[in-house]
Amino acid sequence: MGLISFVGTGHSLILIDAFEIPFMKFFPAVNTASNGSPRSYALPAVFKSIELLLPRDRLFNRMLPIPLAAILGLALSAGSATAAERVLAIGGAVTEIIYALGEEDRLIARDSTSTYPPEAMELPDVGYMRALSPEGVLSIEPDLILARGNAGPAEAIEVLQAASVEWVTVPDDFTMQGVDDNVRIVADALGVPDKGQVLRRKLAAELAEVTAATAGLEQRKKVLFILSLRDGRITAAGTDTAAHSIIGLAGAVNAIPEISGYKPISDEAVITADPDVILMMQRGASGAQHGADNSMITEHPALGSTTAARDSAILRMDGLYILGFGPRVGEAARELSAAIYPNASN
Q1: Distance (Å, rounded) from C-alpha 26 to C-alpha 72?
Q2: Which one, of 233, 204, 222, lies nearest residue 296 by Cα?
Q3: 23 near 44, Cβ under 8 Å?
Q4: What is the pTM of this model?
Q5: pLDDT tens, residue by residue, 84-135
Q6: Phi-psi category of 316—alpha, beta or left, where left has phi over 0 and alpha has psi -120 to 50?
Q7: Bridging pattern class, strands 2-6 and 11-15
Protein backbone atom coordinates (compact mmCIF):
# COMPACT_ATOMS: atom_id res chain seq x y z
CA MET A 1 0.00 0.00 0.00
CA GLY A 2 1.08 3.55 -0.62
CA LEU A 3 0.12 6.50 1.55
CA ILE A 4 -0.83 9.75 -0.16
CA SER A 5 -1.65 12.98 1.69
CA PHE A 6 -3.40 16.16 0.62
CA VAL A 7 -0.95 19.03 0.99
CA GLY A 8 -1.97 21.20 3.91
CA THR A 9 -5.27 19.42 4.54
CA GLY A 10 -4.37 16.93 7.22
CA HIS A 11 -6.15 14.18 5.23
CA SER A 12 -4.53 11.10 3.74
CA LEU A 13 -5.43 8.59 1.07
CA ILE A 14 -4.50 4.94 1.46
CA LEU A 15 -4.44 2.99 -1.81
CA ILE A 16 -5.23 -0.69 -1.38
CA ASP A 17 -3.49 -1.57 -4.63
CA ALA A 18 -0.52 -0.29 -6.59
CA PHE A 19 -2.31 2.47 -8.47
CA GLU A 20 -0.50 5.49 -6.99
CA ILE A 21 0.67 6.82 -10.36
CA PRO A 22 -2.68 6.61 -12.22
CA PHE A 23 -4.38 8.11 -9.18
CA MET A 24 -1.88 11.00 -8.93
CA LYS A 25 -2.94 12.33 -12.34
CA PHE A 26 -6.35 13.09 -10.82
CA PHE A 27 -4.77 14.73 -7.77
CA PRO A 28 -2.03 17.14 -8.97
CA ALA A 29 -1.82 18.80 -5.51
CA VAL A 30 -1.09 15.58 -3.63
CA ASN A 31 2.22 14.30 -2.25
CA THR A 32 3.28 10.91 -0.94
CA ALA A 33 3.77 10.75 2.82
CA SER A 34 4.87 8.09 5.26
CA ASN A 35 3.16 9.31 8.41
CA GLY A 36 -0.42 8.87 9.58
CA SER A 37 -3.06 11.56 9.68
CA PRO A 38 -6.38 12.27 11.44
CA ARG A 39 -8.43 10.73 8.63
CA SER A 40 -7.77 7.99 6.10
CA TYR A 41 -9.61 7.10 2.92
CA ALA A 42 -9.47 3.49 1.73
CA LEU A 43 -9.49 3.58 -2.07
CA PRO A 44 -10.37 0.39 -4.04
CA ALA A 45 -8.28 -0.14 -7.15
CA VAL A 46 -11.33 0.01 -9.36
CA PHE A 47 -11.91 3.64 -8.24
CA LYS A 48 -15.67 3.07 -7.96
CA SER A 49 -16.15 3.96 -4.30
CA ILE A 50 -14.28 5.30 -1.33
CA GLU A 51 -14.75 4.61 2.34
CA LEU A 52 -14.14 7.19 5.04
CA LEU A 53 -12.51 5.82 8.18
CA LEU A 54 -13.06 8.13 11.14
CA PRO A 55 -10.51 8.02 13.99
CA ARG A 56 -11.11 5.50 16.75
CA ASP A 57 -11.18 8.20 19.41
CA ARG A 58 -14.10 9.91 17.73
CA LEU A 59 -17.75 9.23 18.46
CA PHE A 60 -18.48 8.04 14.93
CA ASN A 61 -16.10 5.10 14.86
CA ARG A 62 -17.36 3.42 11.69
CA MET A 63 -16.85 3.02 7.95
CA LEU A 64 -18.95 5.44 5.94
CA PRO A 65 -19.19 4.87 2.14
CA ILE A 66 -18.93 8.12 0.18
CA PRO A 67 -18.84 8.70 -3.60
CA LEU A 68 -15.54 9.08 -5.40
CA ALA A 69 -16.87 12.31 -6.85
CA ALA A 70 -16.85 13.85 -3.36
CA ILE A 71 -13.15 13.13 -2.94
CA LEU A 72 -12.38 14.32 -6.45
CA GLY A 73 -14.15 17.54 -5.56
CA LEU A 74 -11.71 18.13 -2.67
CA ALA A 75 -8.68 17.82 -4.88
CA LEU A 76 -10.10 19.45 -7.99
CA SER A 77 -12.08 22.27 -6.41
CA ALA A 78 -10.65 24.71 -8.95
CA GLY A 79 -12.56 23.06 -11.80
CA SER A 80 -14.47 20.00 -13.02
CA ALA A 81 -12.87 16.80 -14.32
CA THR A 82 -11.80 16.79 -17.95
CA ALA A 83 -14.21 15.03 -20.30
CA ALA A 84 -12.96 11.81 -21.88
CA GLU A 85 -11.14 12.45 -25.14
CA ARG A 86 -9.84 8.96 -25.93
CA VAL A 87 -12.93 6.79 -26.23
CA LEU A 88 -13.02 3.11 -27.17
CA ALA A 89 -16.38 1.79 -28.43
CA ILE A 90 -17.09 -1.93 -28.07
CA GLY A 91 -20.27 -2.96 -29.90
CA GLY A 92 -21.67 -1.82 -33.22
CA ALA A 93 -24.65 -0.03 -31.69
CA VAL A 94 -22.40 1.82 -29.23
CA THR A 95 -20.25 3.13 -32.07
CA GLU A 96 -23.33 4.17 -34.05
CA ILE A 97 -24.71 6.08 -31.07
CA ILE A 98 -21.46 7.99 -30.66
CA TYR A 99 -21.56 9.01 -34.33
CA ALA A 100 -25.24 9.91 -34.11
CA LEU A 101 -24.41 12.20 -31.17
CA GLY A 102 -21.75 13.93 -33.25
CA GLU A 103 -18.96 12.88 -30.85
CA GLU A 104 -16.99 10.69 -33.24
CA ASP A 105 -13.87 12.89 -33.01
CA ARG A 106 -13.29 11.45 -29.54
CA LEU A 107 -13.19 7.86 -30.80
CA ILE A 108 -9.73 6.32 -30.97
CA ALA A 109 -10.68 2.69 -31.67
CA ARG A 110 -13.56 0.24 -32.11
CA ASP A 111 -14.26 -3.48 -32.07
CA SER A 112 -14.74 -5.60 -35.18
CA THR A 113 -18.56 -5.51 -34.99
CA SER A 114 -18.51 -1.73 -35.41
CA THR A 115 -18.86 -1.55 -39.17
CA TYR A 116 -21.18 1.46 -39.48
CA PRO A 117 -20.91 4.22 -40.47
CA PRO A 118 -18.26 3.41 -43.11
CA GLU A 119 -15.79 5.93 -41.69
CA ALA A 120 -15.71 3.93 -38.46
CA MET A 121 -13.83 1.24 -40.37
CA GLU A 122 -10.84 3.57 -40.53
CA LEU A 123 -10.40 3.37 -36.75
CA PRO A 124 -8.04 0.82 -35.16
CA ASP A 125 -9.78 -2.50 -34.44
CA VAL A 126 -9.25 -4.09 -31.00
CA GLY A 127 -10.84 -7.37 -32.09
CA TYR A 128 -14.13 -9.20 -31.71
CA MET A 129 -16.17 -7.92 -28.78
CA ARG A 130 -16.51 -11.38 -27.20
CA ALA A 131 -12.81 -12.23 -27.54
CA LEU A 132 -11.12 -9.11 -26.21
CA SER A 133 -7.51 -9.01 -25.07
CA PRO A 134 -6.81 -6.73 -22.07
CA GLU A 135 -3.33 -6.01 -23.36
CA GLY A 136 -4.63 -5.01 -26.78
CA VAL A 137 -7.36 -2.80 -25.35
CA LEU A 138 -5.12 -1.02 -22.86
CA SER A 139 -2.34 -0.53 -25.42
CA ILE A 140 -4.38 2.15 -27.17
CA GLU A 141 -4.57 4.09 -23.88
CA PRO A 142 -8.30 4.90 -23.72
CA ASP A 143 -9.63 7.12 -20.95
CA LEU A 144 -13.19 5.82 -21.42
CA ILE A 145 -14.47 2.44 -22.58
CA LEU A 146 -18.12 2.16 -23.65
CA ALA A 147 -18.99 -1.52 -24.04
CA ARG A 148 -22.01 -3.67 -24.76
CA GLY A 149 -23.11 -5.89 -21.91
CA ASN A 150 -22.20 -9.08 -23.78
CA ALA A 151 -18.54 -8.13 -24.29
CA GLY A 152 -16.12 -10.82 -23.21
CA PRO A 153 -14.56 -13.11 -22.24
CA ALA A 154 -15.45 -12.61 -18.58
CA GLU A 155 -11.83 -12.88 -17.42
CA ALA A 156 -10.76 -10.10 -19.78
CA ILE A 157 -13.61 -7.85 -18.70
CA GLU A 158 -12.68 -8.30 -15.04
CA VAL A 159 -9.13 -7.17 -15.79
CA LEU A 160 -10.29 -4.18 -17.81
CA GLN A 161 -12.84 -3.08 -15.23
CA ALA A 162 -10.16 -3.24 -12.54
CA ALA A 163 -7.81 -0.98 -14.51
CA SER A 164 -7.67 2.76 -13.96
CA VAL A 165 -9.84 3.42 -17.03
CA GLU A 166 -13.49 4.39 -16.78
CA TRP A 167 -15.71 1.53 -17.97
CA VAL A 168 -19.37 2.08 -18.84
CA THR A 169 -21.63 -0.85 -19.71
CA VAL A 170 -24.31 -0.34 -22.37
CA PRO A 171 -26.88 -3.10 -21.70
CA ASP A 172 -28.16 -5.57 -24.28
CA ASP A 173 -31.79 -4.53 -24.16
CA PHE A 174 -33.55 -5.02 -27.48
CA THR A 175 -36.65 -2.98 -26.72
CA MET A 176 -37.81 0.55 -27.43
CA GLN A 177 -37.06 1.46 -23.82
CA GLY A 178 -33.69 -0.24 -24.09
CA VAL A 179 -32.70 1.86 -27.09
CA ASP A 180 -33.72 5.03 -25.24
CA ASP A 181 -31.77 3.99 -22.15
CA ASN A 182 -28.65 3.17 -24.16
CA VAL A 183 -28.61 6.54 -25.89
CA ARG A 184 -28.96 8.22 -22.50
CA ILE A 185 -26.15 6.11 -21.00
CA VAL A 186 -23.73 6.88 -23.82
CA ALA A 187 -24.62 10.58 -23.94
CA ASP A 188 -24.22 10.94 -20.17
CA ALA A 189 -20.87 9.12 -20.22
CA LEU A 190 -19.63 11.50 -22.92
CA GLY A 191 -20.93 14.51 -21.03
CA VAL A 192 -23.44 15.53 -23.72
CA PRO A 193 -26.87 14.83 -22.16
CA ASP A 194 -28.55 17.56 -24.22
CA LYS A 195 -27.47 15.91 -27.46
CA GLY A 196 -28.69 12.63 -26.05
CA GLN A 197 -32.11 14.09 -25.34
CA VAL A 198 -32.41 15.32 -28.94
CA LEU A 199 -31.49 11.91 -30.33
CA ARG A 200 -33.83 10.13 -27.92
CA ARG A 201 -36.77 12.25 -29.04
CA LYS A 202 -35.93 11.56 -32.69
CA LEU A 203 -35.79 7.80 -32.15
CA ALA A 204 -39.01 7.80 -30.13
CA ALA A 205 -40.80 9.62 -32.94
CA GLU A 206 -39.51 7.18 -35.57
CA LEU A 207 -40.53 4.12 -33.57
CA ALA A 208 -43.94 5.61 -32.82
CA GLU A 209 -44.43 6.19 -36.54
CA VAL A 210 -43.70 2.55 -37.34
CA THR A 211 -46.02 1.35 -34.58
CA ALA A 212 -48.83 3.57 -35.82
CA ALA A 213 -48.35 2.40 -39.42
CA THR A 214 -48.85 -1.27 -38.47
CA ALA A 215 -51.53 -0.77 -35.83
CA GLY A 216 -54.38 -1.36 -38.26
CA LEU A 217 -53.16 -4.65 -39.72
CA GLU A 218 -55.94 -7.23 -39.72
CA GLN A 219 -53.57 -10.19 -39.84
CA ARG A 220 -49.94 -10.14 -38.84
CA LYS A 221 -47.54 -12.29 -40.81
CA LYS A 222 -45.37 -14.97 -39.25
CA VAL A 223 -41.65 -14.43 -39.77
CA LEU A 224 -38.97 -17.08 -39.31
CA PHE A 225 -35.53 -15.59 -38.67
CA ILE A 226 -32.81 -18.05 -39.68
CA LEU A 227 -29.45 -17.37 -38.12
CA SER A 228 -27.74 -20.13 -40.08
CA LEU A 229 -28.52 -23.01 -42.44
CA ARG A 230 -25.68 -25.45 -42.79
CA ASP A 231 -25.82 -29.06 -43.90
CA GLY A 232 -29.58 -28.81 -43.76
CA ARG A 233 -29.59 -27.86 -40.07
CA ILE A 234 -31.54 -24.72 -39.17
CA THR A 235 -30.64 -22.38 -36.33
CA ALA A 236 -33.45 -19.90 -35.76
CA ALA A 237 -34.42 -17.05 -33.44
CA GLY A 238 -36.89 -17.51 -30.63
CA THR A 239 -37.92 -15.02 -27.97
CA ASP A 240 -35.39 -12.94 -26.00
CA THR A 241 -33.46 -12.09 -29.15
CA ALA A 242 -32.90 -8.95 -31.19
CA ALA A 243 -34.50 -10.74 -34.15
CA HIS A 244 -37.68 -11.39 -32.17
CA SER A 245 -37.86 -7.73 -31.17
CA ILE A 246 -37.28 -6.24 -34.63
CA ILE A 247 -39.91 -8.58 -36.10
CA GLY A 248 -42.38 -7.28 -33.53
CA LEU A 249 -41.47 -3.64 -34.19
CA ALA A 250 -42.07 -4.25 -37.88
CA GLY A 251 -45.63 -5.34 -37.13
CA ALA A 252 -45.16 -9.09 -37.58
CA VAL A 253 -44.86 -12.05 -35.21
CA ASN A 254 -42.13 -14.57 -34.58
CA ALA A 255 -43.01 -17.88 -36.24
CA ILE A 256 -41.44 -19.94 -33.44
CA PRO A 257 -42.08 -18.21 -30.09
CA GLU A 258 -41.87 -21.57 -28.29
CA ILE A 259 -38.08 -21.38 -28.01
CA SER A 260 -35.85 -18.79 -26.34
CA GLY A 261 -32.63 -17.50 -27.84
CA TYR A 262 -30.99 -18.73 -31.03
CA LYS A 263 -31.34 -22.51 -31.19
CA PRO A 264 -31.44 -25.38 -33.70
CA ILE A 265 -34.97 -26.35 -34.69
CA SER A 266 -36.34 -29.50 -36.28
CA ASP A 267 -37.89 -29.85 -39.71
CA GLU A 268 -41.15 -30.71 -38.01
CA ALA A 269 -41.10 -27.41 -36.10
CA VAL A 270 -40.61 -25.49 -39.36
CA ILE A 271 -43.46 -27.31 -41.09
CA THR A 272 -45.75 -26.72 -38.13
CA ALA A 273 -44.84 -23.02 -37.94
CA ASP A 274 -45.31 -22.53 -41.70
CA PRO A 275 -43.85 -19.00 -41.79
CA ASP A 276 -45.17 -16.42 -44.25
CA VAL A 277 -41.74 -14.79 -44.50
CA ILE A 278 -38.18 -16.02 -43.99
CA LEU A 279 -35.65 -13.44 -42.81
CA MET A 280 -31.89 -13.83 -42.86
CA MET A 281 -28.81 -11.66 -42.49
CA GLN A 282 -26.79 -10.36 -45.38
CA ARG A 283 -23.33 -9.09 -44.63
CA GLY A 284 -20.69 -7.32 -46.64
CA ALA A 285 -20.65 -5.31 -49.84
CA SER A 286 -20.11 -8.50 -51.84
CA GLY A 287 -23.62 -9.64 -50.97
CA ALA A 288 -22.42 -12.94 -49.51
CA GLN A 289 -25.28 -14.59 -47.67
CA HIS A 290 -25.25 -15.75 -44.08
CA GLY A 291 -25.24 -19.48 -44.61
CA ALA A 292 -27.72 -20.08 -47.47
CA ASP A 293 -28.86 -18.88 -50.85
CA ASN A 294 -32.45 -19.12 -52.08
CA SER A 295 -31.99 -22.53 -53.65
CA MET A 296 -30.87 -24.01 -50.34
CA ILE A 297 -34.12 -22.77 -48.84
CA THR A 298 -36.51 -23.78 -51.61
CA GLU A 299 -34.87 -27.23 -51.93
CA HIS A 300 -34.83 -27.86 -48.18
CA PRO A 301 -37.37 -30.57 -47.26
CA ALA A 302 -39.00 -28.42 -44.57
CA LEU A 303 -38.31 -24.84 -45.61
CA GLY A 304 -39.28 -25.58 -49.19
CA SER A 305 -42.78 -26.57 -48.10
CA THR A 306 -43.49 -23.28 -46.30
CA THR A 307 -45.68 -20.46 -47.51
CA ALA A 308 -42.61 -18.22 -47.50
CA ALA A 309 -40.76 -20.46 -49.97
CA ARG A 310 -43.78 -20.86 -52.24
CA ASP A 311 -44.33 -17.10 -52.33
CA SER A 312 -40.59 -16.33 -52.63
CA ALA A 313 -40.94 -14.23 -49.49
CA ILE A 314 -37.30 -14.58 -48.52
CA LEU A 315 -35.74 -11.40 -47.14
CA ARG A 316 -32.13 -10.54 -46.37
CA MET A 317 -30.94 -7.46 -44.54
CA ASP A 318 -27.70 -6.30 -42.99
CA GLY A 319 -27.18 -7.90 -39.57
CA LEU A 320 -26.04 -4.81 -37.68
CA TYR A 321 -28.82 -2.76 -39.26
CA ILE A 322 -31.69 -4.97 -38.09
CA LEU A 323 -30.19 -6.55 -34.96
CA GLY A 324 -27.95 -3.80 -33.57
CA PHE A 325 -30.74 -1.79 -31.96
CA GLY A 326 -28.79 1.42 -32.26
CA PRO A 327 -29.87 4.80 -33.63
CA ARG A 328 -31.02 3.26 -36.94
CA VAL A 329 -33.55 0.94 -35.30
CA GLY A 330 -36.57 3.01 -36.35
CA GLU A 331 -35.37 3.12 -39.94
CA ALA A 332 -34.65 -0.61 -39.90
CA ALA A 333 -38.09 -1.46 -38.48
CA ARG A 334 -39.79 0.70 -41.09
CA GLU A 335 -37.82 -0.89 -43.95
CA LEU A 336 -38.45 -4.41 -42.68
CA SER A 337 -42.16 -3.69 -42.26
CA ALA A 338 -42.38 -2.44 -45.85
CA ALA A 339 -40.67 -5.62 -47.07
CA ILE A 340 -42.98 -7.89 -45.03
CA TYR A 341 -46.11 -6.02 -46.10
CA PRO A 342 -45.28 -4.79 -49.63
CA ASN A 343 -48.93 -4.18 -50.48
CA ALA A 344 -49.77 -2.20 -47.35
CA SER A 345 -50.81 1.40 -47.94
CA ASN A 346 -48.37 4.07 -46.76
Answers
A1: 8
A2: 233
A3: no
A4: 0.75
A5: 999 999 999 999 999 999 999 999 999 999 999 999 999 999 999 999 999 9
A6: beta
A7: antiparallel
